[in-house]
TrEMBL record:
Its EC number is 2.6.1.16. The active site is at 363 (for fru-6p isomerization activity). Homodimer. It comes from the Bacteria. It catalyses: D-fructose 6-phosphate + L-glutamine = D-glucosamine 6-phosphate + L-glutamate. Signal peptide: none annotated. The chain holds residues 254 to 621 of 621 of the full protein. It is found in: Cytoplasm. GO terms for molecular function: transaminase activity. Keywords: Aminotransferase, Cytoplasm, Glutamine amidotransferase, Repeat, Transferase. It comes from Luteimicrobium album. Residues 41-181, 213-358 form the SIS domain. This is Glutamine--fructose-6-phosphate aminotransferase [isomerizing].
Length: 368
């Protein structure tokens, strides 16, 4: 069942190229236009949408956080991302022109379900991105976009996360197509970039030993994670994986926040993962993160850097570099999160912990 892997989590990390490939499969018509058959919301309704609100919990919420960068960029629609349990207990501004996107692996998370109902009561249309067929949330939604990650058994979400990001990107490109934000050939180009991702994820997996060795020898009881732009939710996800699996203090920050407080935590030897954006992307973004690495290094941090192949600028300031293949900035989370998953899984395993069933956690949280 575990396909030769030690744990389900290990297997599911290695299933990720397939989870992304399957989620992309069969989404275009003969002319190459995106066609989301399961999406039963009228195009006129999608054209009228003036705001998207993503509701989700945990890792699924981080997928929404990643999606915000892409969907706002491609579609020029404001996207809010809100934890489902926060959304439902305030008085959110949603109406018939709001598209609420619920993201959930299990389809059973109670807080997300309640957020879905609350949104519908306010007149909003709800589209859910779900991995588990036959679950409650897709049944109650106006439209569903399934992720095809296959069953996820380990409590910590990995392949569902990558499939969720992929599905939100399909949705974003579909909205851009329906609303005319992009020319068909631009959409085709983005899709081609997405289709190249499974092979690149495989490359990151093939290089997994480097991060495994570092994880095995990690003796710190606190690890920090820094990222900017799409690297920020990746930092949050890296920290969550480490907390839930290894039970050690881990925090993710937007790198720009460093001077506003978190840098006070940095003392000699403090391990800090930094997710570095592509040097080929928006140049200011890359150089800003490089200066963040310099700042923490100057205070003695042990810098564990995730960077794109060939990025010479990071080398002088990195204690370790985990290289990932080139990819467009918006798609890079599909690669940069993988070393962080491997790190958490390996560190927890090395400490003799049960990575598939961490203490105090359930795979799906069906109570409020
Ligand atoms: O089934 P869901 O996607 O709705 O679950 C949401 C969260 O409970 C889930 O992602 C949780 O944070 C995982 N344990 C993270 O690894």
């Amino acid at each position: 069942e575990k396909g030769g892997f030690r744990t389900y989590m290990d297997k599911e990390i290695h299933d990720q190229p397939q989870a992304v490939a399957e989620t992309l499969l069969g989404r275009t018509d003969a002319a190459g236009r995106l066609q989301l058959d399961e999406l039963r919301i009228d195009e006129s309704v999608l054209r009228a949408v003036d705001k998207i609100v993503v509701v989700a919990c945990g890792t699924a919420a981080y997928a929404g956080h990643v999606a915000k960068y892409a969907v706002e960029h491609w579609c020029r629609i404001p996207v809010e991302v809100e934890l489902a349990h926060e959304f439902r207990y305030r008085d959110p501004v949603v109406n018939e022109k709001t598209l609420v996107v619920a993201i959930t692996q299990s389809g059973e998370t109670m807080d997300t379900l309640m957020a879905v109902r609350h949104a519908q009561e306010q007149g909003a249309k709800v589209l859910s991105i779900v991995n588990t067929h036959g679950s409650t949330i897709p049944r109650e939604s106006d439209a569903v976009l399934y992720t095809h990650a296959g069953p996820e058994i380990a409590v910590a979400s990995t392949k569902a996360f990558l499939a969720q990001i992929t599905a939100t990107y399909l949705l974003g490109l579909y909205l851009a197509q329906v609303r005319g934000n992009k020319f068909p050939d631009e959409i085709a180009e983005e899709l081609a970039d997405l289709r190249a991702m499974p092979g690149k994820i495989q490359t990151v997996l093939d290089r997994g030993d480097h991060v495994r060795v570092i994880a095995r020898w990690m003796n710190s009881d606190s690890v920090l994670f820094l990222g900017r732009h799409v690297g920020y939710p990746v930092a949050l996800e890296g920290a969550l994986k480490l907390k839930e699996l290894a039970y050690i203090h881990a925090e993710g920050f937007a790198a720009g926040e460093l001077k506003h407080g978190p840098i006070a935590l940095v003392e000699p030897g403090q391990p800090v993962f930094v997710i570095v954006p592509s040097p080929r992307g928006r140049d200011s973004l890359h150089s800003k993160v490089i200066s963040n690495i310099q700042e923490i290094r100057a205070r003695g941090a042990r810098t564990l850097v995730i960077a794109e192949d060939g990025d010479e600028d990071v080398k002088p300031y990195a204690d370790e570099v985990f290289w990932v293949p080139e990819a467009p900035t918006l798609l890079s989370p599909l690669l940069s999160v993988v070393p962080l998953q491997i790190f958490a899984c390996e560190l927890a395993t090395a400490r003799g912990l049960d990575v598939d069933q961490p203490r105090n956690l359930a795979k799906s949280v069906t109570v409020e």
